[in-house]
UniProtKB/TrEMBL annotation:
This is Uncharacterized protein. Residues 38-79 form a coiled coil. Residues 1-30 form the signal peptide. It comes from Dissulfuribacter thermophilus. Keywords: Coiled coil, Signal.
Amino acid sequence: MSRIGFFRTAGCAIMASILICFAVSSYSLAEDESRQEIQYVIKELKMLKAQMAEKEREIKRLHEEQEALRRALRQRDREIEL
């Protein structure tokens, strides 16, 4: 093998190993970004779940308040009839 052939082969091997390193690092970066996106979505879902629970408590409180007002109206109507 001539020197030029040797250097060409060695150069190709070096370039291939560099490309492989870039590919692996790009994959790792993409994987990290995916993890971060998934963590962000999970965080958002937890926040929405907490908001939903708060709204459900508010709805329950409003229903209880509405029922108390209905009872008060019925009581007042009974008193008026007497």
